Amino acid sequence: MIEPAAFEREVRELHAFFEHWYTGTAEPSEISRLDVLDPSFVMIAPDGRSLTADAVVSSITAAFGRRSMAIEIRNVSVNRDAGFGTYEEWQTVEGAVTGRISTAVMAAAPDAPNGLRWIHLHETWLPDTRP
Hints:
Strand order of the largest sheet: 2-1-6-5-4-3
CATH class: Alpha Beta
Strand content: 35-45%
Largest sheet: 6 strands, mixed
Structural class: alpha+beta
Mean pLDDT: 95
């Protein structure tokens, strides 16, 4: 069981980290924020690619300071008993806006910043927002 407020806080805080990381305003040591990804984590990207936790971390690490971007999270919904929720992620990168709906599965993790660890993430492009 996950608390909806903790789920929403985790989604918002992790995406705020992404925004700071990609724009280069984060401290390099903040990459440890990605420790919330379970070693078995799998992300299905909007284009259908399946990425492991190691692949996601490597990609993000390499992109430090390489994008001008803003991320907005909207319409968070949580099924507390099943341990998953959905949210919309709107990105503005170099002036281009894209949107995706994401389904995230999380598990309790008392040592994580919001008490949750990411297990699985599936993203799908929202209509008319695909790059």
